[in-house]
Amino acid sequence: MLSDGTQADINIGENESDPVFVISDLLPHLASEQMKKNGSSVIEGENLNILIGSRPFKSDKESELVKLNILNILFEKYGIKEEDFLSAELEAVPAFKAKDIGFDRSMIGAYGHDDRVCAYPALMAALNTEKTPSKTIITVLTDKEEIGSDGNTGLNSSYLRYFIEDLAADFGERATTVLSKSECLSADVNSAFDPTYPSVMEKNNASYINYGVVVTKYTGSRGKYGTSDASAEFTGRIRALMNKNGVIWQTGELGKVDAGGGGTVAMYIAAMNVDVIDVGVPVLSMHAPYEVIAKADLYMAYKAFRSFIDD
User: Fold this and answer.
1) Is the peptide bond before 115 cis (omega within 30 degrees of 0)?
2) Strand intervals (E) in 96-189
3) Do 37 and 171 fall into the same domain?
């Protein structure tokens, strides 16, 4: 947001001719002390400095000439001043393009499969429905999930509840009644079994790529801590729905009980007394710069969401 109140949307790196930015790393020849650190502290947050330029501004009277040159470029090209960074939302993400993976091209590698690979088919399922739904359909693409869903754009806020309250009021209904009669698929990924790292997974309760969309009854840390545990009745309903519509599906847990775990936004939906369960795509190398999914699983996720909407 610029000082005059206007908004500048800037995307650098999508076009082939765009520059990209890098974070420098220490060469192995001089990294003996770094290699003694624990894995979680090998690269500290304060050392994630992004290289954005090196050429100085043509002046003999100013200090910080490289910074001045960069600011001059940003002002000339985008109208941005230094103070505008105080009200900017900046994101630096890997610049890799999505690519087919494998000789058989059966997989897709890309940055941010978690959770674009579920958000996209969920949205397309809503847009591509061929018949007028008998019930109100809402597809929510929310923010801040990876940092706890906090803030007024995260699902831990009240914006969705307020929206449903207003929607219910238009029809003369109570929001609590509407919410209690609602059902939800929480579109989120699960970790696919990786034979390179089998020790953290319980292979009889793990999801696998090319086995279809994964239904996750509960997530949580160290078991079910911090999770939404879908009811047996709703789990059975979704299972029957998948079978009825020819959706290839599987179940999975997020690793061994004592290996760690993770969570989804399902717990915030459940807190509104809505029946909810996680349904999504199994992912290899989750949270790595280049995540991998199977094309067949992605299609089955789309088919699952379509079946839920059209049911």
Assistant:
1) yes
2) 99-101, 107-110, 183-187
3) no
Residues 106, 228 share a domain: yes
Encoded tokens for 249: 């599906």
Distance CA(294)–CA(66), nearest Å, equals 45
For residues 112 and 217, membership in a common domain is answered with: yes
Angle at 84 between CA 80 and CA 87, to 5 degrees: 140
Residues of the domain holding 36: 22-87
- 281 and 138 share one domain: yes
Sheet strands (E) in the chain: 22-23, 50-51, 99-101, 107-110, 183-187, 190-191, 213-216, 220-221, 249-251, 261-262, 275-280, 282-283, 291-294
Rounded distance, CA 130 to CA 148, Å?
35
Domains of the chain: total: 2
Assess if residue 2 is contained within a domain.
no
Residue 93 lies inside a defined structural domain of this protein: no
Q: What does the DSSP assignment read for 64-104?
A: SHHHHHHHHHHHHHH---GGGGGG--------PPPEEESTT
- Distance (Å, whole) CA 230 – CA 123: 23
Q: What is the edge-to-edge ordering of all strands in the sheet holding 183-187?
A: 183-187, 275-280, 213-216, 249-251
Residue 52 has a CB neighbour count (10 Å cut-off) of: 15
The closest alpha carbon to 50, from 20, 19, 21, belongs to 21
Residue 56 is which amino acid? P
Neighbours of 86 (CB within 10 A): 8
Do the domain assignments include residue 11? Answer: no
| pLDDT tens, position by position, 50-87 | 999 999 887 766 668 899 999 999 999 999 999 999 99
- Which residue, 31, 63, 87, sits at the end of a domain? 87
129-143 pLDDT, tens digit each: 887 878 899 999 998
